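Q: What structure does this chain adopt?
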Amino acid sequence: MSSASRITRERPVPVLVNGDRMKQPEFHRRYEAYPEDVKFELIGGTVYMASPLRRAHGLYHPVFSAVLWLYHSETPGVEVLDNTTTILGGESEPEPDLELRILSQYGGQSRETEEDYVEGPPELMAEIAHSTRAIDMHQKRDDYQQAGVLEYAVLCVEEQRLYWWHFPSGRMIKPDRQGISRSRVFPGLWIDGLALLRRNTKRLIEVVQRGLASRAHTTFVKRLDVAHRKGR
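A:
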């Protein structure tokens, strides 16, 4: 029996259909009726059903995740999330591949709901784009920018390129002469895009550790601590 059939028979909730138009509360109500292995997203008021993930996505996802996890592990008040439902607004409820956010109690712009979802725009969202490139580079980019996400990174597998936007300035974050791109929202988050594409973990770890040892990261950690103390 299909997932849609189970929804119709077991719960009186209308099924979700790829391309449907609706508001976030209605999307969320319907989506909650599905089993956890079925993935939908609401992007700009349009429902998208996730396609099967290819091997390339599975190769790059854990490497990109590890980079953000290393940064998070040395930055109190910051967390990294993987495929987490995020309520961005009245017409937006995506599940980005990865997101890096400042916790609300440390001055972050998103918060945790009573149902343990993330509500509001995380500071950074990231996608691994392969079969989803068109959506990731256009609909999602526009949706995330409009919602107030500050930075958006897309690792394009076929192009072998890392795109990284800093929305407040309207500019791309580009690598320096050493090939290192530096986040403007998360000081000390340094990524060698070529090493990420080549899955060169040794180089990736080296660059992340250099960023974590920077004065900018030390200052950022202190700033987060001050915000936390004020919020108590």
